[in-house]
Amino acid sequence: MRFDLGAYHDRGMEMTRKTHLETTRAHALEAAEDIGRNPMASPTMGDVINARFARRRVLQGALAVSAISATLGPLALGASRPARAAAPSFGFAELAAGVDERHHVAPGYRAAIVVRWGDPLFADAPEFDPMNQTAAAQLRQFGYNNDFLGYFPLDGSSEHGLLGVNHEYTNEELMFPGVAAQITKEDPLAYATRELVDIEMAAHGGSVVEVVRENGQWRYVRDSPYNRRVTMAEGHTPMELTGPAAGHARMRTGADPEGRTVFGMLNNCAGGQTPWGTWLSAEENIHGYFTGALPEGHAETVAFERYGVPGDWYAWGKFHDRFDISKEPNEPNRFGWVVEIDPYDPQSTPKKRTALGRFKHECATPIVMADGRVALYMGDDERFEYIYKFVTSGRYDPDDRTANLTLLDEGELSVARFNPDGTMEWLPLVHGQGPLTEANGFASQADVVIGARIAADLLGATPMDRPEDVEPNPKTGRIYAMLTNNTRRKAEQVDAANPRADNAFGHIVEMTPPDGDHSAGTYTWEILVQCGDPSIADVGATFSSATTKDGWFGMPDNCAFDGEGRLWVSTDGNSDAGTGRSDGLWAMETEGEARGTSKHFFRCPVGAELCGPVFTADDRSLFLAVQHPSDDTDAWAAFGRLSTFEDPGTRWPDFQDGMPPRPSIVVVTKEDGGTIGS
Ligand code: FEO
Ligand code: CA
Ligand code: CA
Ligand code: CA
């Protein structure tokens, strides 16, 4: 997708093109190159008709049998479980939707900046100087494009803790002076020098930052002993591969003949937080960092095609051989994992947990079952990809953290197939079972996890409309999958769980395990909401009629549950789609009569997507990650052109001449100090 950088130069400031930021944004899969790579995603027309017919019958049956229908929302197609009780509902005054240079929050709330790209994390870190940035400085400063956020309390406090933050990717033309002008169609990576590439690598990865609330105001603590940067810089942040793929021949490289140690993590998008206080950081669009070509006839050829390697988005391979697959063909296999990091121990070695499979991980969100086993839900964020689950063999022990720290190495990985009758199956990705045999290229469980997508294809998993966050509600045990969009789904490819062709605005699927048993092989499911503007009939949005003109959203991406178990949804792509509204945060009712009602709470400055919503345990603080402010500003009529370092659509959050826009962490509190959203 990086070749679209050329379009930036070529098409100048025209309104029609996708910004090259969009094409380089690892998650922004609207670019022409990204057609989805799943060859299995083509049900027949007969399948579709059967599916829809069966679905309708289930609905009619459910409506016929009882008064259940009176309490189910219009979207409750599954209708196989009892009516839900009303739950605490959102009581805040709604924010007006719109788009401008600033962020906005609902009346009665405050939204303050906590930490920004370039802020010094250590005593010896230089102050941020965007005209003279260096890799050495960036290694000691907060990274770029904050995505996932975890809040890890210190001494159980909701006013003192650690943030674990992913830094997903970099936007060079907003970060570096003069770069936009160097981007040409002939060589979109012409801007790249060794120093700029090394800054990019230092700006990727993650940060651990201590934060504290004093006199009602949050601030980050410079030089906290907990502060840490995890980066992709040369020789930085060794990580241990654990689980079935560790040490396997496909994981070995010249620099690591044992196949057990990787330097750094790539394109970490969302993630999760374990009950034992670790940060799960999910490697997503890892293909974009590799360049070159595999040697003729190389054994990885088919697998790399399925994973989109090489993506050619970055010039790292020019200066660092391991990103050139002609020189180091196994290196891509060492990325695309869920990384577990202990934020409380800055000396700890992050672990890449290969038992959880390798794909374009959006997230890994755990829930503890009654018997102590832990289930994790994961999305593979690309068009026509799958939803996965991992269930640990061992049990979580609140009194034995050391034992918990190896729980994610043993268990069963499975992938979801959605049936049109409102049931779904979890299909085990276990070597030797079903088609996952040597005859099909799976000689061991290592092959299954390294090529999880290919294994899932063979099992007949359901290709979804880009699974982003997939998160269990800790109060109800129901799981919510944010399916952000898929404009490449054709009419003949729709199915019950992905019911719209040309799905520009996405939808949310709700899954229910039987009796809270997350190890079960069969669940039920239904669609919570189809997103988009409900006032345009062709869009097919299904928000409740109580949703206002400000309350609807498109492109659900991340989500969070507050202490009451209420769902909050953050979005990515509304301004790109010309909806006249920024991305932001919406409160989404899932229970009782109000189910399907959404309310606007926070909105980003122009061009930003909203990531990482996370509440403190007391629900009095809500941390948000504002990513890539000033991206996609050509779609904003008030600016009408692409942004550059020199000429950005917004200089959020500093609004100082010469200061570029800075991805930042925001904290929302209530002016009266109360709980959020009530
Ligand atoms: Fe990085 Fe799926 O968003
Ligand atoms: Ca996204
Ligand atoms: Ca993102
Ligand atoms: Ca995302």
Q: Any overview of this molecule?
A:
57% of the residues are buried. This protein has 3 domains: 36-51 and 251-284 and 336-527, no CATH class; 82-231 and 545-678, no CATH class; 286-332, no CATH class. The chain is built from 12 helices and 31 strands. The longest helix has 21 residues, at 45-65. The strands form 6 sheets. Strands 14-15-17-18-19-24-23-22-21 form a 9-stranded antiparallel sheet, with no helix packed on it. The two termini are 43 Å apart. With 678 residues, the chain is α+β, with helices and mostly antiparallel strands. The structure holds MU-OXO-diiron and calcium ion (3 copies). Residues 27, 147, 168, 269, 609, 611, 627 line the site of one calcium ion (CA). Residues 27, 269-270, 362, 468, 557-558, 572 line the site of one calcium ion.
What is the total domain count?
Answer: 3
What small molecules does this complex bind?
A: MU-OXO-diiron, calcium ion
How many helices does DSSP assign?
12
Please provide the count of β strands.
Answer: 31
Q: What proportion of the residues form beta strands (DSSP E)?
A: 25-35%
The N- to C-terminal Cα distance equals 43 Å
Task: List unreliable stretches of 5+ residues.
Answer: 1-35, 42-82
Question: What is the topology?
Answer:
Elements: H1 5-10, H2 20-24, H3 45-65, H4 68-71, E1 104-105, E2 109-116, H5 135-138, E3 146-153, E4 160-167, H6 172-175, H7 194-203, E5 205-214, E6 217-220, E7 228-230, E8 238-242, E9 261-263, E10 268-273, E11 279-283, H8 301-307, H9 316-319, E12 338-341, E13 351-353, E14 365-368, E15 373-379, E16 383-385, E17 387-395, H10 401-404, E18 411-418, E19 423-428, H11 445-450, H12 452-459, E20 464-465, E21 467-472, E22 479-483, E23 507-512, E24 522-530, E25 556-561, E26 567-571, E27 584-588, E28 598-603, E29 609-615, E30 622-627, E31 664-670
Parallel strand pairs: 8-13
Antiparallel strand pairs: 1-28, 2-31, 3-4, 4-5, 5-6, 5-7, 8-9, 10-11, 11-12, 12-13, 14-15, 15-17, 16-20, 17-18, 18-19, 19-24, 21-22, 22-23, 23-24, 25-26, 26-27, 27-28, 29-30, 30-31
The structure holds MU-OXO-diiron and calcium ion (3 copies).
